[in-house]
Amino acid sequence: MRPAGEIRLALLQACVALATPEQAPTLREIALHAKVGLTAARITIGNMTQSGALRVARQRRVAYRNRPVAEYVPATWMPPQDCPTQGLARVLTHWVG
Questions:
Q1: Are the C-beta atoms of residues 71 and 24 closer than 8 Å to each other?
Q2: How far is CA 70 from CA 1, 5, 14, 36, 84, in A?
Q3: What is the pTM of this model?
Q4: SS3 per-residue string spanning the chain
Q5: Tens digits of per-residue pLDDT, 2-16?
Q6: CA angle, 10 as apex, 5 and 1 as ends, to 5°?
Q7: What's the topology of domain 6-94?
């Protein structure tokens, strides 16, 4: 299997950097953050979604399009409040010892 290309890695890093529990990035936001062209981003994100590296979290209305656009998150991404170790992390940060 070939290693991931530069565009794929840049888009994945941008998606990780921009994803929050309240709002995930759209294709255009990921491409802008990764400094990748829209055509290359559209094709690569389509491939990444098909291969399972990214998933569509939800859809959002935007001003530049009549239809809602997809918000993407990495397949392994989990919001902090859903993380199974969140309770332990909270205890350890408040533990005065």
A1: yes
A2: 29, 23, 15, 18, 27
A3: 0.76
A4: CCCCCHHHHHHHHHHHHHCCCCCCCEHHHHHHHHCCCHHHHHHHHHHHHHHCCEEEEEEECCCCCCCCEEEEEECCCCCHHHCCCHHHHHHHHHCCC
A5: 677 899 999 999 999
A6: 25
A7: Arc Repressor Mutant, subunit A (1.10.10)
